[in-house]
Design brief:
50% of the residues lie in helices and 7% in strands. By secondary structure, the chain is of the alpha+beta class. The two termini are 33 Å apart.
Length: 197
């Protein structure tokens, strides 16, 4: 297998942690987003969406989203189970992971992509350029701060985000909190459960 990665991309990190937790040996090819390598013709042949991560399996099939990479690897390498062992666990984990993605990652991306000077004309990922909208940056920042506060209740007194076992919910929440930290947004100091986690 080949894993197309970028060390600074949160989505790549989500897949990279999953691969590491599974203990899978994968050939890694680094894609330089800063130099816009992902927008070049060579990488477009690998992923026309111009995004990382990408996992290419031996028959040439390429998975171009974190969700697809997780689903494939969880099925192929079931232990340790990171998306749950029982139907109920899978439902709970997936439900919480979705909340983290929608209320956390999408909010943070809205803030970052519409405010960072390095993302001028790149307000959305993918092959097309879009102008930044400052009002979306403001809304994204507000949503991110709200979600950082909500994490306290999501964690509660559980040892892990979705229960008694480490899962993709923990991976995503860790990457989100670090991602927000890049823009100096952090967990509230009063979030004792979230800080313990």
């Amino acid at each position: 297998m080949k894993f197309y990665d970028c060390k600074t991309a949160p989505s790549s990190r989500r897949a990279r942690i999953f691969i590491a937790e599974k203990g899978i040996d994968v050939e890694t090819i680094y894609v330089d987003l800063e130099s816009r390598e992902h927008m070049g013709q060579e990488f477009r042949r690998i992923n026309p969406n111009c995004t990382v991560p990408v996992l290419e399996i031996p028959d040439g099939t390429r998975f171009t989203t974190t969700a697809a990479i997780w689903a494939y690897l969880e099925s192929k390498y079931p232990n340790p189970a990171l998306i749950g062992e029982t139907a109920k666990e899978r439902g709970v984990i997936t439900d919480i992971q979705w909340q983290i993605e929608v209320n956390g990652f999408l909010a943070m991306a809205e803030f970052l992509r519409n405010s960072a000077p390095t993302m001028k004309n790149r307000a959305l990922p993918g092959p097309y350029d879009y102008e930044q909208i400052p009002d979306l940056a403001d809304r994204g920042k507000s949503r991110t701060l709200q979600f950082l506060s909500d994490i306290e209740e999501i964690i509660g007194d559980k040892p892990y985000v979705a229960g008694d076992k480490f899962s993709i919910a923990d991976i995503d929440l860790l990457v989100f909190v670090d991602f927000a930290g890049w823009r100096k947004l952090t967990l509230p100091t009063t979030s004792t459960n979230a800080l313990r986690w």
